[in-house]
């Protein structure tokens, strides 16, 4: 017991841990600290745990009320052995953080544990880009650790210095030493600190890195000294533990997250806190939540940027702030910030001025890259005009060391990709424009990604489809940047890019975006390129068809057919004719569709184009299904499947398997139908092809209904609709009457309430439903993956016949 009668913290912690039936390892894992730290606390080797650790332990133990109060009381009780051995700075000697730390509570607890653990790091360097909050985090750690070191914590501000030789004298003054004529300041400081248990907090070391060896020597001579440094670059000394301070977490980019969820996102919490400092009446509402979350995303969660923008809510609504971000970021922040942090540009100027001339040139040139890039792209854009290709990697390391470039941690063996915080990229691009280099570099960027898109286009019809789709996914933002440059530059680049990307947009479901770019390309396509123009038109037709815009699709395919006839290009004519056959199929003009299919098939056979022929055979098979000629349909689809397997075209293989499933369904061969649908669905999932994956879910729903499982059928139909809605594709079936009969039968069997429940369940977990259905043939396995806590709504169901007609192509 302590002199105050309060139980020792170690004994209290051990008692509560044992009552919770936890081992030291389990408690440490749940609290986010080391097992060694728990052991030291329980044995009394660390009697004064910092508040973050006490709260983390209480949360991990699941205690509240009186038990939590007991643990906290035992942590703050004073013990004789804890009295300082020497004169330590009082708490008032530390700068007091002006605001509460937001979004880094667990990070702070882990760092405190690292600095106080007997086997922990002697020097921890907090690195990160300017404005990310390194100093703010360091001040929090200093306050928490004030009583964890016998001789306290000393904070040393180094930003005002410009000479590395002044670092040691500045530290000496901070610990209360004065220079002595008979002893060098280094020796005096070493002697003073050799017997001290002290934490030195060295703030802003990045411009004084030449002093790092002297800091290292100080650590070697003072065994109980620990150092916490903040720097945009690591010190590069032995024993250094670098901790990268990342921007605050931002809302996910996929869809609206809603005001209630946004309140728990760290970047949004910081925005709201600073907005309320400026306007106490400000609040997050459903009306402004979308704008605020998008602001935080655009700013990449960079705290200084978020604070500067949030402070303007007294002048501009969130929607106005969103449209004026670049302008607002140039405004001054809080007046009590250092001059170098009064604006975001000022804090980035500080980092920029520390770069070498070659690093500055590379920094500017890479600013045209968006959404991440690899080493090859950096070399292609960065080399030249005084920079050799072989130098680029070392220069990238310099940018990373100054925390201007991000290198995400990847768990696989894929080549590393570098990334930007958007405010940093925009700053670098402003520098590029100021140096009048932007046009030349953007031309090189457009040429680089045009080459990538055209190489990918030739691969998207072969066995490496999935890999090349993933390549285009990774550089989607760079491709958009190149398209945007082409839009303002000349029609040649834009039209070539649009043609190369049309299949990517179609398969990945970027329907509206693809139509927008292809329409722009059509307006600017050189009249000397009729074949390319026909491909643009064909791409527009395919995307319009997927969205259910039959009128536009027909017009585009007819224009493409006219262009093909003018150039007498057999492949163009065959592709446009196949497109017109699809339109006729959706319009239920089956005889006309059959005639167009015969024309298209003949032209593809004459051209000897296996891939085009397989695609046309697929449409011809669908037409025959609709005409009720199922034997003929199966022959066409099986011929197409053989050709697609030869070419390795995964997408076409999947569509043919999918449609063979519909023939099986018509024949009431439900087991074979399910096998075909699942085989197609697995391929669609690999390609992220959602519209046609929805078609497989529709087929599997009808199989489930035939097997007497209406809840499962309804969930699959709901998932199919959800997947179409996600990409803006049509949800209309080819067989509306038969489809409605199926829904009506399912609704009658389980009732309206259960029908709506399972439909909503499918919609809300649409992609999960698809993956589960593709990979779990047993209903019970699928239930375990997607039903979560829901119970079946019951109902006795008998086997039902199912109309075997596909709802999509």
Automatic annotation (TrEMBL):
<dbReference type="InterPro" id="IPR011990">
    <property type="entry name" value="TPR-like_helical_dom_sf"/>
</dbReference>
<dbReference type="GO" id="GO:0016887">
    <property type="term" value="F:ATP hydrolysis activity"/>
</dbReference>
<dbReference type="InterPro" id="IPR010982">
    <property type="entry name" value="Lambda_DNA-bd_dom_sf"/>
</dbReference>
<dbReference type="Pfam" id="PF13560">
    <property type="entry name" value="HTH_31"/>
</dbReference>
<dbReference type="InterPro" id="IPR049945">
    <property type="entry name" value="AAA_22"/>
</dbReference>
<protein>
    <submittedName>
        <fullName>XRE family transcriptional regulator</fullName>
    </submittedName>
</protein>
<dbReference type="Pfam" id="PF25872">
    <property type="entry name" value="HTH_77"/>
</dbReference>
<dbReference type="InterPro" id="IPR027417">
    <property type="entry name" value="P-loop_NTPase"/>
</dbReference>
<dbReference type="InterPro" id="IPR058852">
    <property type="entry name" value="HTH_77"/>
</dbReference>
<feature type="domain" description="HTH cro/C1-type">
    <location>
        <begin position="13"/>
        <end position="68"/>
    </location>
</feature>
<dbReference type="Pfam" id="PF13401">
    <property type="entry name" value="AAA_22"/>
</dbReference>
<dbReference type="GO" id="GO:0003677">
    <property type="term" value="F:DNA binding"/>
</dbReference>
<dbReference type="InterPro" id="IPR001387">
    <property type="entry name" value="Cro/C1-type_HTH"/>
</dbReference>
